[in-house]
Design brief:
By secondary structure, the chain is α/β, with parallel strands linked by helices. The strands form three sheets. The chain has a five-stranded parallel sheet, sandwiched between helices. It has a three-stranded mixed sheet with strand order 4-3-9. It has a three-stranded mixed sheet with strand order 8-10-11, with helices on one face. Helix 20 packs across helix 21. The longest helix is centred in the middle third of the chain and has 24 residues. It binds D-mannonic acid. D-mannonic acid (CS2) binds next to helix 10 and helix 14.
Length: about 500
């Protein structure tokens, strides 16, 4: 038996199910990038809205790459289980807000058709950092990106995010349909502004008038999105299916915590997101800095150093006292000074909650998963706060240790000489640089600091940055991550 509209009634009593008639839902949002993060976060807020009677905002979810999610959820009528994990056990809830699934590469015109539907007033995105085809250091469109080159050559059948947004907005304009609002839900700095920049630039390259139209008529609110979602394993599938008494081909795993802060700028209308617990604000920046720098910056630091020290998960890494102490020192001594605390937030409580979230043993969030795509993540997570500290004349030893951890990790060989499966759009280039530099900390650091897309032109020339990075990298190479971290926090 498989989870579907027809089998919903047979779920056990302790599994919550959609409190509304899914057949009565109407699509009002198209979402690009229908992966785990979307399904534990936005889709859950929309599910809650639908339970409150707001039935016009159901989601049409599209994958821009792999058909896997669609293939798993189509036979389930878009239904899937959210499994919330904590020390109290697993809490299961079936989510019904995903009413239609599309696979862009299979049929790009079908996705454009959905985006042009006048009933659709918002297009949301979670396509990971690398999905925006931008230069991570500057935030500008990477005009030499192969997908951008392809989309400029055949704009009617796009494959990139800027390509889809620009073409759909052009089609709406041509048909006299008001534009949709674009809501980026990825961990990018000023995410609305960044997506606006790449979309507008792409449109300009196609047709300056389209660029002007997007600049003046389309809203790109920024958001801060937060919920930790480890990728689903086969064991998770089996556990959830056993509890359901029927198969769910792709449940999603999450922590109990969830936060969504949204800039309230929706000229074409929006659902009452606040009824589902989202915070609507005028300025997202303080929330975004707090989250990207304290949560994600610590996450990346723990991921590289924890992986190197042999820890499989973030909770395992936090279980080692020097690593837990490192997170505290990184946050308290360095990063907090670069965060403008949002009004009404108790920053001490926020940081304590973060450390508890990282320590959630039920979650099994793999260090390897977070280590992915470092070139896309480091600039906003660690390098932006480093620049601000340096400008204020303040030290950055703990941030430098995180950056050195990344450098050690992308050599592609761990501390036991076993290969590391480094996933990154620049993985091949990083590996070649590391191989050529060898295991000399100065040469290796200089080679990687030359990756301008990550470090820009300024940091490689800033000795107060390069010196602590090289010093930490040297220790990591000679003594390993566990010893280096213990020394850094004064525990050895
Ligand atoms: C993580 C994030 O994988 C990563 O890089 O740092 O996905 C993190 O779990 C989320 O941003 C939490 O909201």
């Amino acid at each position: 038996m498989r989870l579907s509209a027809a089998t919903l009634e047979r779920l056990p009593a302790d599994v919550r199910r959609p409190a509304y008639d899914i057949a009565a839902a109407k699509v009002g949002i198209v979402h690009l990038g229908v992966g785990a993060f979307h399904r534990v976060h936005q889709a859950v807020y929309v599910d809650a809205l639908m339970a409150r009677g707001h039935m016009d905002w159901a989601i049409c979810g599209a994958s821009l790459r792999s058909p896997d999610t669609s293939d798993a959820l189509d036979p389930q009528d878009g239904l899937y289980t959210l499994c919330v994990r904590s020390g109290a056990g697993d809490d299961l809830r079936v989510i019904g807000s995903l009413r239609r699934l599309l696979v862009a590469p299979r049929d790009p015109r079908a996705l454009l058709g959905a985006m042009v539907d006048p009933a659709v007033r918002i297009v949301t995105l979670t396509v990971t950092e690398k999905g925006y085809c931008h230069d991570p250091a500057s935030g500008e469109l990477d005009e030499s990106h192969p997908d951008i080159v392809a989309d400029l050559a055949s704009p009617g059948t796009p494959r990139s995010v800027p390509g889809f947004l620009a073409e759909a907005l052009r089609l709406r304009r041509e048909a006299g349909i008001a534009p949709f609002t674009v809501l980026c839900c990825d961990n990018l700095p000023s995410n609305g502004v960044t997506v606006e920049k790449v979309t507008r630039r792409f449109a300009e390259l196609r047709d300056p008038a389209l660029g002007r139209f997007i600049a003046s008529e389309v809203a790109f609110p920024s958001t801060m999105v937060d919920r930790i979602a480890p990728s689903t394993t086969d064991a998770d599938r089996a556990t959830v299916s056993a509890r359901l008494g029927m198969e769910d081909a792709w449940p999603v795993m999450a922590e109990p915590f969830s936060q969504w802060v949204i800039e309230d700028k929706f000229p074409s209308g929006r659902p009452p997101f606040e009824e589902a617990g989202a915070e609507m604000v005028a300025d997202v920046a303080p929330f975004e800095h707090m989250k990207l720098r304290l949560l994600n910056g610590s996450h990346s630091t723990l991921a590289y150093l924890g992986y190197l020290a042999g820890y499989e998960t973030i909770a395992d890494t936090m279980g080692a006292a020097p690593f837990a102490r490192l997170v505290e020192r990184l946050q308290d001594d360095e990063v907090t000074s670069t965060v403008h605390v949002p009004p009404g937030t108790d920053i001490g409580a926020y940081k304590r909650a973060l450390r508890d979230r990282f320590s959630n043993p039920a979650l099994r969030h793999r260090t390897w998963q977070i280590a992915m795509d470092g070139t896309q993540k480091l600039p906003q997570r660690l390098l932006a706060p480093a620049r601000e500290r340096l400008a204020a004349g303040a030290p950055i030893d703990f941030i430098a240790l995180g950056v050195a951890g990344w450098m050690r990790y992308v050599t592609g060989t761990d501390e036991k000489a076993a290969p590391i499966d480094v996933r990154d759009p620049l993985a091949a280039r990083l590996r070649a640089l590391a191989d050529e530099a060898g295991r000399d900390a100065h040469r290796l650091a200089d080679a990687l600091l030359g990756v301008r897309e990550v470090f820009g032109d300024d940091l490689p020339r800033e000795e107060r940055f390069t010196e602590p990075v090289k010093r930490n990298l040297d220790l990591l190479l000679r003594e390993g991550a566990a010893t280096t971290v213990a020394r850094a926090v004064g525990a050895s």
